[in-house]
Design brief:
Blueprint (H helix, E strand, L loop, with lengths): L2 H15 L1 H18 L14 H34 L3 H6 L5 H38 L7 H28 L3 H12 L2 H4 L12 H13 L10 H22 L2 H4 L1
Helix pairs in contact: 1-5, 2-3, 2-5, 3-5, 3-6, 3-7, 3-9, 5-6, 5-10, 6-7, 6-9, 6-10
């Protein structure tokens, strides 16, 4: 069974665990308050940022600090449980399927889910910006290529974080503990991004990237900027280590 076939099969399984509803709910919860408090974007003169940029960045800051990582934690656990429910992993292991390939296929599905939620975020941003523009008679809609660049960077920066969450869900078989530890690891991100060692904490990557963009857009706001070295080497190493551990542990107890 080739890798793409496995990915397609795993994508079909996500329909049964309701991950899509979680991603959509998190996205809607994010942007509704942004519309209700649209006037606050006009009070950012001290920071030197335009209302439309502030509207965009504030929404994505809220998403990247908690809602997006929390959705990925839930996605990892739910995807892992699709095999453990009714001992489905045993049936999978009777097929001519390499467990490493199956583990990586599930991780690929998680990346697809992350991309889907980011697309949802982008779509809801444009809907919210259009509604806000009508309410305030001011154009809150930013150019597509600017938004695409920011969301693309957000997706790439989230890969090590998702790898870490996937490792947790494979290593810790009890869902409540896996979710609890995953959510607990998100909270310190807001503190870590203000240290020089932010690159060593993958859960802080998405928030750091958006915060750095905030500093570039706000003329009077000084925030730390992305330094590709040592960030990229560390991010690659973290992703490889987490996936290596996940692949080693995946289905191991059932194989013994």
């Amino acid at each position: 069974m080739n890798f793409l076939t496995l990915v397609g099969m795993e994508l079909r399984k996500t329909r049964r665990c309701g991950i899509g509803y979680i991603l959509l709910a998190a996205t809607v919860i994010l942007w509704v308050p942004s519309i209700l408090h649209i006037d606050l974007n006009f009070g950012m003169e001290a920071e030197g940022i335009s209302p439309e940029h502030n509207f965009f960045i504030q929404g994505f800051l809220a998403m990247t600090w908690f809602l997006f990582p929390a959705s990925m934690v839930a996605g990892c656990v739910l995807l892992g449980q699709t095999e453990r429910t009714n001992r489905g992993i045993l049936r999978m292991l009777t097929l001519p399927v390499d467990t490493v390939r199956l583990c990586l296929a599930k991780f690929a599905v998680l990346l697809v889910l992350a991309a889907v939620q980011i697309l949802m975020m982008t779509g809801m941003y444009y809907i919210s910006a259009l509604i806000g523009s009508e309410i305030r008679d001011y154009n809150f809609v930013l150019p597509f290529w600017f938004v695409a660049g920011q969301t693309g960077g957000l997706f790439l920066s989230s890969i090590p974080m998702i790898a870490f969450f996937w490792m947790l869900s494979v290593w810790i078989r009890t869902p409540i503990f896996s979710i609890g530890l995953g959510l607990a690891s998100i909270v310190p991100s807001v503190l870590v991004i203000n240290t020089k060692l932010w690159f060593a904490y993958p859960m802080a990557y998405p928030l750091f990237v958006v915060t750095a963009q905030y500093g570039r857009l706000a003329a009077n706001l000084d925030t730390a900027q992305v330094e590709w070295v040592p960030w990229i080497p560390v991010a690659v190493a973290v992703t490889a280590a987490c996936l290596g551990i996940a692949c080693y542990r995946f289905g191991r107890e059932e194989r013994i």
